Amino acid sequence: MTTQTDITWIAADWGTTNLRVWALSDTGEILIHRGSDRGMGKLAPAEFEPALLDLIEDILPTRGEVPIMVCGMAGSRQGWAEAPYKSVPCPPPSIADATRVKTADPRLDVHILPGLKQLKPADVMRGEETQIAGFLADQPVFSGTLCLPGTHTKWVKLKSGVVERFRTCMTGETFALYRHRSVLRHGLSESEFDTGAFKNAVLCVLQDPKVFASELFGIRAASLVAGQTPTEATGRLSGLLIGAELASIRDEFDLADVAILGSSKIAGTYHAALECLGQDARLLDAESITLRGLTLAFSCYARETS
Amino acid sequence: MTTQTDITWIAADWGTTNLRVWALSDTGEILIHRGSDRGMGKLAPAEFEPALLDLIEDILPTRGEVPIMVCGMAGSRQGWAEAPYKSVPCPPPSIADATRVKTADPRLDVHILPGLKQLKPADVMRGEETQIAGFLADQPVFSGTLCLPGTHTKWVKLKSGVVERFRTCMTGETFALYRHRSVLRHGLSESEFDTGAFKNAVLCVLQDPKVFASELFGIRAASLVAGQTPTEATGRLSGLLIGAELASIRDEFDLADVAILGSSKIAGTYHAALECLGQDARLLDAESITLRGLTLAFSCYARETS
């Protein structure tokens, strides 16, 4: 049974929508893994500490402080405490770049890792930089492209441990908007999609990116007058959006050796889209890589303070 | 003062969002013009007649029936009564193509004009076909391009009174989704936009349509790290979306002589976008053209039944 004294430190991935924490032993064993939906988007700055305590207070030691390594939107200007961006090209941020947060509860020793920014073209990330650090921990000299799919998918060019540049596409968010809020919702399926329709749409936009805007409403129209099924419509919407994304980044990022950090359904969709280009890609588990990145930060911290 | 006996017929433009009616005299004078927000999207089939009566019952004659000419989404399958699409190429539908609706109230003589469909590429319209009829009433041999901007903008190729083909872009709906529901909303201005940023974005996408998907998140990022103002961000979003639309239709539609049916702000935005291409365009008042189209239908009906 886990006791409070077993816990050496806590890792927290605090995004816009969710907060996930892991309590770890001194050997790196995950003792507790919990989550809540109190993401940065729902919290005022003063509400972060109570939200964190709600999730972990029962596992805090009765005395002494616990190091807590945080990545993600909690470090944004509207978050808990701003952790100013580092500028690329640079290696992923380390504990030396983190912002120490003043807390009311003396048991909390909170460090927020900063995100990365790029000035030209303008771009930002918060949270993914820690995944990149976790990825590089296992393959420090990797040179190639990382794809971190999600609400805002990141494409990252890595060279010998340095983030050279990156680009964000809001494909996941756009898909959700069209699916749930637009006229297209009437003809879409609940979750399944037709793979053939998906691939045709990916290739259609890759071959001729300018068709994108008029193809979108075509999804609705084909449901009304051409017998298109809901699963075909959903596949086509997904394919048009990911096709437009690949078209927009393929000149800037080498797609011949892509590592996709994500084991979720969306990661599989990107994998299938890259297959349309004749490219294979590796799928790596995002959550364990996030924890790996936060563990790196803690290890450096423990070394410095020991 | 208008009396009930002055009213010869009623015109109704019944879209997804709104219902607008005009009561007209035998000389075509507009006696009453009213609207409500009870669009097709909010009504079950049985609710259309009560919604119409709520708006016009006080002006109906005490006996005899009043012809009511309806265009728009009220004629869709989920509307009041389905008015099956006509297929292009064809002239805009006339009263002979209309669906007569059975009503409980004997004073209502309701005719719904059908929309148009296109099989390849699949596309549909409901309501705009009546505007096209109204436009052609004044220039029956016009050959060129009509642009009907709105939530779903229509581009129409006309040749000697025939709708040869058309294309729909859901640019207005997409703009509203990004503006109110996406992460981009944080950096946008309330209503004003910067014209320079708009034009730059239109040209950026027209010159290289494939950049569209990654430029979108660039709007958010430039607000965060490059000092972009809210009016610049709004202009850029509008410009990227209309630029992508023009890129997708410019090969299919002659943009050298475009008539834009719409006097609203959105019509002005399309006019400005065409100027980026060095094209001038005529702006015509959409509402009076809709009424002109419905009047045409009534005139034919009155001729047939007299």
| CATH homology superfamily of the largest domain in chain A | 2-keto-3-deoxy-galactonokinase, substrate binding domain
* Low-confidence runs of chain A: none
Q: Pairing-aware structural class of the strands and helices of chain A?
A: alpha/beta
Main sheet makeup of chain A: 6 strands, mixed
Quaternary structure: homodimer
Share of β-strand residues of chain A: 15-25%
Main β-sheet, spatial strand arrangement of chain A: 3-2-1-4-7-6
How is the CATH topology of the largest domain in chain A named?
Nucleotidyltransferase, domain 5
CATH-defined architecture of the largest domain in chain A: 2-Layer Sandwich
* Mean of pLDDT of chain A: 95
What does this protein structure show overall?
The structure is a homodimer of 306-residue chains. The first copy, chain A, is α/β, with parallel strands linked by helices. The first copy, chain A, folds into two domains: 123 residues, 2-Layer Sandwich (Nucleotidyltransferase, domain 5), CATH 3.30.420.300; 117 residues, 2-keto-3-deoxy-galactonokinase, C-terminal domain (Nucleotidyltransferase, domain 5, 2-Layer Sandwich). Chain A has eight helices and 14 strands. Chain A has a six-stranded mixed beta sheet with strand order 3-2-1-4-7-6, sandwiched between helices. In chain A, helix 2 crosses helix 8, helix 5 runs antiparallel to helix 6 and helix 6 crosses helix 7. The radius of gyration of chain A is 21 Å and the shape is globular. Chain A starts with 8 loop residues before the first strand and ends with a helix. Chains A and B meet through strand 8, strand 9, strand 12, helix 3 and helix 5 of A and strand 8, strand 9, strand 12, helix 3 and helix 5 of B. Chains A, B: Pfam families: DGOK (PF05035). Chains A, B: This is 2-dehydro-3-deoxygalactonokinase.
